[in-house]
Every structure is written in structure tokens, then in C-alpha cells.
Amino acid sequence: MSLSSESIAAVSVPGSESRVQAVTRRESWRVTDPRTSIVLILATSLAVMAPGGEFLVPAGIVLGLLLAFADRAKRHLTLLAFAFAVLGCLGYVLPMLVPTGFSVILGVAAAFLLRFVTVYAVALHLFRTATPGTVTAALRAARVPRGLTVPIAVVLRFIPVVASEVTAVVDSMRLHGLTGWRALLRHPVLSIGRFTVPVIASTLRVGDDLTAAALLRGLGSYQRPTSRIVPRLGWPDLLWIVIAAVLAAGCFILRGLS
User: What transmembrane ranges does the database entry give (predicted)?
Assistant: First the structure.
């Protein structure tokens, strides 16, 4: 039976358990239950992607920036703010300043892309604060069918591994001098093949490894597995739900006034 790092620290050092609990209480407002994160993602997607939902995009933008600030993700916060500013200018300011056909087409594309970036900003909180194990436990606690729980758990484990494999392939190509615009322009098909073939082979191998690991963990079995971390809804979840509701209500009020 293995112990977590917090349990080992609590056993080996007197008084460490109280310090760990104090740190957990101090940081708990930043972390929401995975079920709350999924609800925020679904609500944001339905709100901003629905026909006529562009007036709710500012609420999603502010929610995404607040979540990044709460997660202390300074780099993501800066990149998201820059992306929102650029897409907002291209989508709404440029067509008014330069009313041409090209600016209108560019504005429509930028406004549509802004909605996807808004959903992505809210979804980043789930990837920063949750693990595949906690997401699986939360979905199981919410009585989500296994037909949805298993694919979500596999995707959450699959994407980071594939991203690391892609980075390894790019680094290997860079070491062999196979990257760069010159090589791509000279031999485009060969350059694409040198990248895609190792990535596909790595993806197939990763899929087999994840399948074997899932079978060993009992994922998909008819028995209800136990979870080391019991998901619980608390006041941080209520806090972020209230924040999202207030932002959406503010957009409705501004729309009514305008």
C-alpha cells in the first residue's frame, strides 16, 4: 500500500499534518471541483456559441481571465489578454474604422475565433486544477454513464502524452537539421512525412499503453472502483458559479440598456 507525499510528510514530521491542512485551506478557493469546471465549460460553450450569443462573449472573457488569475497562471493570463485584445480589435474595431470588404470578412472570422478562444480560456482551468483521476472520480460521483466517463478519462490522459511525443519528434528533427522553412519549401511532402510518420507511430504505441493501463486500473469494469480523493462540492464552487451568473446578468442588463 503506497502513501502519498502529504501522508509521508504527516507521518515523518510532527505537526506537518496541520501545516498541510492550513496550506490546503489557504489555496482551496483557487481550486474548484471538476464537476463545477465542466459545468462552467458547458455553460460558456452554449452561451457564446449559440446564435445571437455574441453579447455574452465579454462575460466569458472576464471569467476566463479571472480563472487564469486565480490559478496564478501569469503566462496564460498575458497570452489570453493579448489574444482577446487583438481579436476584439480585428472583429469589432477594424470594420468600423475601415469599412471595406476585406475588413468585414476579417472581422467576421476574428469574432468567430474569439468565441473559441473564450471557451478555451475557461477550459484551461480544468486542465490546470484537475487530473484524470479526479475528473473520473467526479464524473462517477455525478452518476455519469460509463460510456461518457471512459472516453473523457482516455482523452485527458491521451492529449498530454501525445503533446510530449510531438515535442520529442520536433526536437529530434531539429537535431538532424530537418526543420526550418528552407527544408519545408524544398521538400514539403518529405518534411511532412518525416513529422507525421513518427507521430502516428508514437500515437499508436501510446494508445496501446493507455489501454493496458486502463485495464489494469479496472476502468470500464462493472464494479465501482474506490477513489483516493473523494470529490466534494464546497464554497469555492458556489463562488465561481455566482461570479459566472453575475457576469452573465451584467451582459443581459447592458444589452437591455443599449
Answer: 38-70, 77-98, 104-127, 148-170, 238-257
From CA 178, how far away is CA 155, in angstroms rounded? 30
Amino acid making up residue 239: L
pLDDT tens profile 79-88: 999 999 999 9
Over the stretch 185-209, which tens digit does the pLDDT of each residue have? 777 777 777 788 888 888 888 877 7
